[in-house]
Design goal:
The protein has 117 residues and is α+β, with helices and mostly antiparallel strands. It has 5 helices and 4 strands; from the N terminus they run ααααββββα. A hairpin with a 6-residue loop joins β3 and β4. α1 packs across α2 and α3 packs across α4.
Amino acid sequence: MKAQALERYKTILRKAGCKATAGRVAVLAVFESTKKPLSPESLIYAVKTLNQATIYRILDVFKAVGLIRQVDFRHSHPHYELTPSTDHHHVICVSCSRSEEVTGCSATLLQKNVLRQ
């Protein structure tokens, strides 16, 4: 990780009221580089230096301070994404479970269009 990115992540964490530990910086870096909702399992895989309990504690802290939000894909596990600066929604394919972000839409209009057969 470049020094400039490292300092930016530390600044983000400190502004949110968090200590900028190496683990928190690593998890934040994964969220920023992926730019899609992540499951705890995918974070455990991506940040091999942290154990499962630590990942879950970091997610709890990030959620409590508003850095991330939980996204419900109706799977058996939660997904999390960085708290977006603009409102958006997710559309999930019922066949392959692939998700796509949809921005600049009215949720009511989207629902009518998606459910219309």
